[in-house]
Specification:
By secondary structure, this protein is an alpha/beta fold. About 55% of the residues lie in helices and about 10% in strands. The chain has a five-stranded parallel β-sheet with strand order 2-1-3-4-5, sandwiched between helices. GO terms for molecular function: phosphatidylcholine lysophospholipase activity.
Length: about 220
């Protein structure tokens, strides 16, 4: 009887250790100030809100905010290998390009950087979601239209999910924007979290499916 209890306890302990690891899905948000929570603590950003929410509703999902205010596609491309190595994600949501557009960077350069980011992720069988990005119309009609069109083209070319730009629903409400007219304020973060949650969960579901098929 004693040996049975020891063996039974050992099995239970192994299950407690092994099951969370095998079931775990890591989702990284690779973005700029819109996801980093510019002007506020990361903990109150929309990603931080989802991270706390998912501790109860999605306990097998690790949500990592690897966003940096002021980030460009080139900067994210440089640090991507380190992000992958550190967090070992099964899915990555890419929210980048806004700073490139605001600085008037070449569209060819932005496209190439995004393509390289997507390629590095796909080579590691990581599910990729790409956020649509738009820049203010004062940069000229032709440039802003070409910039916006680049994202669905990249999504189609790479066969990845294009995620609608959450700022479309936020920027039209002055009460949800900071004084600079570019960044959402703290009040907007809950709204953004509600917009993004079902979209990110689609990436999680895809990652779960591919992980299951590979095992």
């Amino acid at each position: 009887m004693k040996n049975f209890l020891v063996k039974f306890s050992t099995i239970i302990l192994l299950l407690l250790v092994i099951r969370p690891v095998s079931a775990n899905v890591s989702l990284v948000v690779l973005g700029d100030s819109l996801s980093a929570g510019y002007g506020m603590s990361k903990s109150v950003s929309w990603v931080g809100i989802l991270e706390r929410r998912w501790q109860d509703t999605q306990p097998d999902v690790e949500l990592v905010n690897a966003s940096i205010s002021g980030e460009t596609t080139q900067g994210a491309l440089r640090r991507l290998p380190g992000v992958i190595e550190r967090h070992q994600p099964q899915a990555v949501f890419v929210e980048l390009g806004g700073n490139d557009g605001l600085r008037g960077f070449s569209l060819a350069t932005v496209r190439d950087n995004l393509n390289q980011i997507i390629d590095q992720l796909q080579q590691r069988d990581i599910v990729v979601g790409l956020s649509q990005i738009q820049i203010p119309p004062n940069y000229g009609k032709r440039f802003t239209e070409m910039f916006a069109a680049m994202y669905p083209e990249l999504a189609e070319e790479n066969n990845i999910r294009l995620v609608p730009f959450f700022m479309e629903q936020i920027a039209v409400d002055a009460d949800l924007m900071q004084n600079d007219g570019i960044h959402p304020n703290e009040q907007a973060q809950e709204t953004i979290a509600n917009i993004m949650e079902p979209l990110l969960l689609e990436l999680v579901a895809q990652a779960r499916k591919e992980k299951s098929e590979a095992s």
